[in-house]
Structure formats: structure tokens, C-alpha cells
Specification:
The chain has one domain. Helices cover 75% and strands 0% of the residues. The protein is built from 5 helices and no strands. The longest helix has 28 residues. The protein is elongated and about 50 Å long.
């Protein structure tokens, strides 16, 4: 049995993160009234729906970026892992500050927890050479 390499772990992470972000993002765009209660997040009012759907489009795009990397992992995986670290640091850092500062309810804590955990995992995989020719 061949041991799993950092690249194979990175491909698995990309598949899971990509599928979750793509589905969550598309859900926020097309079915936010169904997705938010699953997250235990209150429904927005007024213009909040427009901004929520915009965020959903961004989340779906990040997810599709992970999935795009799987089409040619040797050429794309390191780039996608590095680029999405930047996106996740920004989103995770902001949402953590917003939860701690009371602008977002505690129900949103899963967002920075997930983003920052993926930042750590991706940086570790990159440091182990994920996406290099192994």
C-alpha cells in the first residue's frame, strides 16, 4: 500500500473544501432562506438579502477554484492552495473580528473557525511540498 503524499492530502482537502464552499455559496445565492436556518443564522432584512447573495457568489467562486485545481493538480494545486489562503485569511479574520465585536452573532463563529483551520491545513500542506512533483 502506497503512503498518502502531501499532494494526495491536498487533493482531498481541495475536493472537500471545494464541494462545501460551492454548495454553500450556491445555496446562499439561490436558497438563502433554507441555508441560513441550517447555519442557525437569522434571516436578513431589506438590502441584507442582496449582500448575502453577493457573499454567496464569492463563496461559490472560492469553492469552484478548489475544484478547478483538481482538473490539473500538478499545474494548479499549489497556486490554488496559496491563493485561497489569502481569501480565507481575509474572510476568517474579518468574520472573527465581527463575531468578537458583536457585529455578527455567535452563530457565525463557524465561518472563522472553518476558514482559519483551512489556512493552517493549507499552509502545512504547502510546507510539506503539496503540488510539487512527488
Amino acid at each position: 500500500m502506497t503512503p498518502l503524499t502531501s499532494t494526495s492530502w491536498a487533493c482531498r482537502l481541495s475536493l472537500v473544501a471545494g464541494a462545501l464552499d460551492t454548495c454553500t455559496g450556491l445555496g446562499l445565492v439561490f436558497f438563502p432562506g433554507l441555508v441560513l436556518p441550517l447555519m442557525r443564522v437569522p434571516l436578513p432584512t431589506g438590502d441584507g438579502w442582496v449582500f448575502l447573495r453577493f457573499v454567496g457568489a464569492f463563496v461559490a467562486a472560492v469553492g469552484m477554484t478548489y475544484l478547478w485545481a483538481l482538473c490539473a493538480p500538478r499545474e494548479r494545486l499549489r497556486v490554488v492552495l496559496g491563493a485561497t489562503v489569502i481569501f480565507r485569511l481575509a474572510a476568517g479574520g474579518y468574520s472573527l473580528a465581527a463575531v468578537v465585536g458583536g457585529q455578527l452573532g455567535l452563530a457565525w463563529a463557524s465561518v472563522p473557525a472553518t476558514d482559519l483551520a483551512l489556512v493552517i491545513a493549507q499552509l502545512w500542506l504547502l510546507s510539506k511540498g503539496a503540488g510539487r512533483h512527488e
